[in-house]
Amino acid sequence: MPIDAQRLAKSKRPSRAADVLRYFASVSGSLSYEASMLDQAAKKCATAPPGYDRNAAIECYLVHFRNIRDFLYPTAESWTDERYFDDVIAWDFCSEWLEVAEDWKECSLAERTRFNKLLAHISYTRPQLGHDWPIAQMHAAIQNSVSEFVAKLSPDRKKWFEK
To answer: Which of 8, 48, 71, 155 has the fewest CB atoms lying closer than 10 Å?
Structure first.
């Protein structure tokens, strides 16, 4: 369920200048970098033999996947909690994009927790968490979500995301 109108009405999230957003979408900006690294890591995951090189490719993929996922599907607090105002989110580019973490069926909240525990924190539950990642399916799902986001952009902002 997209962010509710009540939370959106309480939003204190600052709007960003168009030139700042244009930079983040440009070839030299962070969003382009994340997408490029995601694609390159997906290719490495598909070709690297089992072992440390493949694990490194998978971890690289997961970090960039997580960043794009959080851009497209941030937590609802991104609109009301100042700790999240520095995070670049899709809504900054398109006020019609009101998706939040709970909206993306391909990555449940439990999966979000698994990402965090396996990538960002050394945890006692890490050994019990699954270490299999369907990279090809994940890649298709995130690419589909990026396409949906770009389709919602105004024509002038769509140009920012063209390579």
So the answer is: 155
pTM reported for the whole predicted model: 0.88
Number of domains in the chain: 1
Which domain, by its residues, includes 51? Answer: 5-9+16-161
C-alpha distance from residue 112 to each of 36, 38, 90 (Å): 22, 17, 18
Return the sign of the alpha-carbon dihedral for residues 51, 53, 55, 61. negative
pLDDT tens digits along 25-58: 998 889 999 999 999 999 999 999 999 999 999 9
Whole-number Å distance between alpha carbons of 79 and 21: 17
